[in-house]
């Protein structure tokens, strides 16, 4: 019988589609990268999603975030993403958390429930906490490195964190992962040298706002989703 996932089933088969439908995946960060991860997972038939982010959609998100439209400006990102998921797959079980994942909020989440974990947040401390909890629970995790200040979508690659080069965030993460004894970590990163953004009204002496495009974060997010689906299909 035809369904919204019939074309995907032609590639992966019925058993894999049943596996996708039985999986719960946590996506931490529903922004330029994470929003596209959620989109692709929903369109691939994943049966349950936990969406974690405390931000609301703002006007400057419209250039790159798939959940951002004039209609959703002002909504919590997790709420906009949940509505979009259910418009694609009404049967998908979605849990939303209006919270930032930080070391002090990590105990709200039982990583043992997840079949895969996506780190698409910006803070190093939060990223490390996600990775450590996933590793401790024995759950596969994939982490997004920097997608801001990049304009070449073809420069994104999948690699182990210790094989990365150029990306400033990856450099910090390599150091911190090594200090914590994390032996491996699948990441998506760009080998493009980051561009220095022009001055912005949003910038301050303490914080420089990164530039962004419609096609760099989206590519990173779709690569992450592809890695997850292919990993689950090969189990």
Describe this protein's structure.
The protein is of the alpha/beta class and 235 residues long. It has a single domain (6-233), classed as 3-Layer(aba) Sandwich (Rossmann fold), CATH 3.40.50. The chain has seven helices and seven strands, in the order ααβαβαββαββαβα. The protein has helices at residues 6-12, 14-22, 34-43, 77-88, 124-137, 168-179, 216-233; strands at 24-28, 48-52, 93-97, 116-119, 141-144, 156-160, 186-190. It has a seven-stranded mixed beta sheet, with helices on both faces. Helix 3 (34-43) links the parallel strand 1 (24-28) and strand 2 (48-52). Helix 1 (6-12) packs across helix 2, helix 3 packs parallel to helix 4 and helix 3 crosses helix 7. The protein is globular, with a radius of gyration of 17 Å. The model has no long low-confidence stretch (mean pLDDT 95).
How much of the sequence is in beta strands?
Answer: 5-15%
Cα-to-Cα separation, first versus last residue: 25 Å
Indicate the percent of residues in helices.
Answer: 25-40%
Q: How are the strands of the largest sheet arranged?
A: 3-2-1-4-5-7-6
Gyration radius, rounded: 17 Å
Shape: globular
How many helices? 7
What structural category arises from helix and sheet content?
A: alpha/beta
Q: How much is the average pLDDT? A: 95
How many separate domains make up the residues? 1
Write down the secondary-structure element order.
HHEHEHEEHEEHEH
Provide the CATH architecture: 3-Layer(aba) Sandwich
Number of beta strands: 7
The CATH superfamily turns out to be NAD(P)-binding Rossmann-like Domain
Main sheet?
Answer: 7 strands, mixed
Unreliable segments of 5+ consecutive residues: none
């Amino acid at each position: 019988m035809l369904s919204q996932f019939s074309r995907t089933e032609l590639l992966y088969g019925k058993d894999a589609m049943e596996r996708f439908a039985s999986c719960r995946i946590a996506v931490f960060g529903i922004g330029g990268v994470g929003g596209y991860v959620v989109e692709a997972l929903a369109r691939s038939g994943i049966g349950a999603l936990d969406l974690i982010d405390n931000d609301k959609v703002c006007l400057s998100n419209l250039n790159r975030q798939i959940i951002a439209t004039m209609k959703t400006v002002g909504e919590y990102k997790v709420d906009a993403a949940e509505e979009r998921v259910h418009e694609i797959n009404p049967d998908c079980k979605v849990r939303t958390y209006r919270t930032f994942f930080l070391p002090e909020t990590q105990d709200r989440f039982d990583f043992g429930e997840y079949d895969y974990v996506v780190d698409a947040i910006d803070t190093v401390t939060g990223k490390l906490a996600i990775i450590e909890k996933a590793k401790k629970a024995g759950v596969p995790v994939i982490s997004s490195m920097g997608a801001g200040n990049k304009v070449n979508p073809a420069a994104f690659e999948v690699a182990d964190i210790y094989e990365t080069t150029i990306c400033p965030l990856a450099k910090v993460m390599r150091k911190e992962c090594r200090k914590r004894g994390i032996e491996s970590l699948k990441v998506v990163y760009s080998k493009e040298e980051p561009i220095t953004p022009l001055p912005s009204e949003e910038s301050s002496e303490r914080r420089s706002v990164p530039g962004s495009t419609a096609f760099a974060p989206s590519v990173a997010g779709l690569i992450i989703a592809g890695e997850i689906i292919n990993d689950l299909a090969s189990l």
